[in-house]
Amino acid sequence: MLAQRNEINLQLLKVCDAALLGLTFWFAHFLRYHKVIVLDRIVEIAPFPSFVWMLAVIIPFAPFFLETQGFYNHPQEKTAWRSMQKITMAGVWLFVLLGAAVIFLRLEVPSRSVLILFAFFTPCVLMLREQFEIANYHRKVRAGKVGERVILAGEPECIDSLMASLTPVQKMEMRVEDRIDMTSCSIEDFISSLHKHSVGRVILAFKRLDLGKAQKAIEACEAEGIDAWLSTEFIPTSIAKPTFSILGPRSMLVFRSKPAAQWALFFKNIIDRVGAFAGLSLLAPLLLLVAAAVKITSPGPALFRQRRSGLHGAPFEMWKFRTMYVDAEQQKAELQAFNEMQGPVFKMQDDPRVTPLGRFLRRTSIDEFPQLVNVLRGHMSLVGPRPLPVYEVENFEQTIHRRRLSMKPGLTCLWQIRGRNSVVNFSDWVRMDLEYIDNWSLFLDAYIILRTIPSVLLGIGAR
Questions:
Q1: Number of domains in the chain
Q2: Do residues 440 and 340 make contact, with C-beta atoms less than 8 angstroms apart?
Q3: Between 387 and which of 143, 291, 308, 391 could a Cys-Cys bridge form, CB atoms 3.0 to 4.6 Å apart?
Q4: In the predicted model, is pLDDT for residue 182 greater than 60?
């Protein structure tokens, strides 16, 4: 609730956890090095300097992964089991990163026992630290040290709605000194209340924004050196989340309807590029073999290239193995009556334009493998809404459907693991894409990738 103070506390907690995890890693090495605990057959292990590269990964990235999993959010409102889940998922990503360093940088792990001990001690240390934080918070509550003095001003129903939306912990963080009805109160009475109660913050809540009164109230707070928080309830949104930013010299109220976790998106981009490069390297012989088979079994190029809509609708040339005869686009108009999809997308079971080899490639999803080149070039992601042809996007009947373009298109998505071509209503397809966008996380991407593997191998929903 107290954004500035909470941000400082968050950074301090991350520094504290980084130090605790560094000490925990050193302690794990100490126990193994002095043979207090031995989990492998190696008698002697290398001294601590040989493990420093792992410490260099753990200290900066462990708090980052904990934050992305929401470990630091509302500790007083979480159960111990929920905290353990978040610590576990952060640990999985940390060990994935350590594994990537071993594979791609060819770094050595001198003793797995140290990592096992570290993995065992870490949840205990973090849970104890969190419980200490909660106990300290409750102590401050009992001592009356928690709660910032604030004034609530605006329309009474909006103030009531705002307070009803807060959790008990959030309410404890505020000590409401006065509630001012700005529809009947003068600005002079508002200023008198500021002087009387000596608060550090005023929260303004309007359903129908009175720019004149709001501006005067903010100017009064500015003159007094008091923070003024303006609720955005007067601009109702169902999805977009308002944030504040600066553009040049001007203050901007930003409404986001897509993920804003820049560091997480940065790592998603790295994972995409590394994954695409690794996939192309491993699949190169298969890709060459399939390309030759496509050329031999039907006249035309091995690759099918088509303009698809990418991020924010920007067109790009998508690659896939050709699965149809070369005149497929010309035949589409004649087959439009057999379209099984409700919406702008064309899908048809037993499509006569598909070659015999093309049916096999589609059923096994091998035809999609060349899109790894698109991922490597940055046009696509490993996970994201499937890219649609530009002309299909132009025929969207509902503007809200274009929100699926707010994230980079991907090789796989929720649609891929929930039936694929068995989904015949385009609105259901879009609903799954928006569900992915609204709930996006690196963990969700990993979940979809893991679920895609059996879907592809078993050909679930494929045609």
A1: 3
A2: no
A3: 308
A4: yes
CA 459/CA 18 separation, integer angstroms = 45
Q: For strands 227-230 and 250-256, give the pairing.
A: unpaired
pTM of the model: 0.62
Beta-carbon neighbour count of residue 213 at 10 Å?
19
In terms of Cβ atoms closer than 10 Å to its own Cβ (0-12, 13-18, 19+), residue 260 is exposed
Do 89 and 172 reside in the same domain of the chain? no
Identify the domain boundary among 236, 251, 278: 236
SS3 string of 26-70? Answer: HHHHHHHHCCCCCCCCCCCCCCHHHHHHHHHHHHHHHHHHHHHCC
CA count, 13 A, side-chain hemisphere, 273: 7
Tokens of 162: 């705002």
Pairing of β 250-256 and β 241-247: antiparallel
Residues spanned by the domain of 375 = 262-458
The pair of structure tokens assigned to 215 is: 């501006």
- pLDDT tens readout for residues 49-59: 999 999 999 99
Determine the Cα–Cα distance for residues 359 and 347; give it in Å rounded to an integer: 14
Q: How many helices (H) and strands (E) does the chain have?
A: 16, 10
Residue % of the chain over a pLDDT of 70: 89
Q: Are residues 325 and 231 in the same domain?
A: no
Would 242 be classed as within a structural domain? no
**Residues comprising the chain, all counted:** 463
Instruction: Give the sign of the dihedral formed by CA 151, CA 157, CA 162, CA 166.
Output: positive
The tens digit of pLDDT for each residue in 283-312 reads: 999 999 999 999 999 898 999 999 999 988
Gap between the Cα atoms of 412 and 385, Å rounded: 7
391: helix, coil or strand? helix
